[in-house]
Amino acid sequence: MLTIVSHEGNISTITISRPSALNALNQQVLSEIKDAFASISKLHSTRGVVVTGEGEKAFVAGADIKELSSLTKAEAVELSQKGHQLFQFIADFPKPVVALVNGFALGGGCELAMACHIRIATENAKFGLPEVNLGLIPGYGGTQRLTQLVGRAKALELAMTGDMLNAKDARELGLVNHVVANKQEGIELANKMLSKIAQKAPLAITELIKSVNAGFGYEKAGYEAEVNSFGHLFTTKDFIEGTTAFMEKRTANFKGE
Ligand code: CO8
């Protein structure tokens, strides 16, 4: 298993545990996250969920680039659509979901954190959508959710430069709710917050999540445009160059082809 589910009191924790690849999301991890949320949704005793990454270095450093590099356009579109469904399931989850971001939250990792309701980041956390370095764009809803959280101008700047934001800057921009010194403090804060919410009426919390999300609207056109553009880029030479360069640990030389 690459995803560990644990329960303490009325809080369930999902830990993505693939430290050798900085907890990157391969298809197995995605499917295990889906199963974890599905099983927690049936647990009456769980009143809140924490999602985090194993270790201190990474929350999730993105989709698994080695796996992505061999996908066809059709496979990439299918996987992106599956990810969209899963991340929207998390965004609509009827119980509060806190992302405890303990290190790198890049690409799909940043998208996973953004799908959660609340984000707590450790001081060493780094956020970013660096897909442009691979000849790609975000494919798990990042173009939409980053824009919702930080506004169009900053979202475009971050996604076009691929720059990483530190935890404090991410908090300034509204991407992160709270910054804590380390993972232990993050666990304590997440537990405190979720325990407080657990004392409120559960049905009211569920309706609150539904209402806030309805106001944002699941802008289907935006998510669909992302999937189509993401898939299209799998047919380009720049995508081959970008992913090859990552695996060869060098800077990519893009030609716009
Ligand atoms: N995928 C696969 N392996 C990874 C990933 C990743 N995203 N990130 C890190 N790793 C691996 C490295 O290859 C390395 O493995 P090895 O030891 O075998 O060489 C190991 O993890 C440790 O990483 P580094 O040695 O690179 O550690 P550093 O501290 O030097 O650097 C970084 C850390 C800066 C985080 C660096 O690893 C990095 O840049 N990683 C890639 C980040 C990235 O580009 N993420 C975006 C990926 S694309 C994406 O998320 C698209 C989402 C939509 C997908 C839709 C699916 C269809």
Question: What order do the helices and strands come in, and which of them pair?
Answer:
Blueprint: E1 3-8, E2 11-16, H1 27-41, E3 48-53, E4 58-60, H2 65-68, H3 73-91, E5 97-101, E6 104-106, H4 108-115, E7 118-122, E8 126-128, H5 142-150, H6 152-161, E9 165-166, H7 167-173, E10 178-180, H8 183-198, H9 202-216, H10 220-233, H11 237-247
Parallel strand pairs: 2-3, 3-5, 4-6, 5-7, 6-8, 7-10
Antiparallel strand pairs: 1-2, 8-9
The chain binds octanoyl-coenzyme A (CO8).
The site of octanoyl-coenzyme A has 24 residues, from helix 2, helix 3 and strand 6.
GO biological process, one term: fatty acid beta-oxidation
GO molecular function: lyase activity
Protein name: Enoyl-CoA hydratase
Q: Helical percent range? A: 40-55%
Mean pLDDT: 97
Q: State the CATH class.
A: Alpha Beta
SSE pattern: EEHEEHHEEHEEHHEHEHHHH
User: How many domains?
Assistant: 1
CATH architecture title: Alpha-Beta Complex
CATH homologous superfamily descriptor: 2-enoyl-CoA Hydratase, Chain A, domain 1
- Count of extended strands: 10
CATH topology: 2-enoyl-CoA Hydratase, Chain A, domain 1
Low-confidence stretches: none
Span of the ends, CA to CA:
39 Å
Which small-molecule species are bound to the chains here? octanoyl-coenzyme A
Largest sheet: 6 strands, mixed
Structural class: alpha/beta
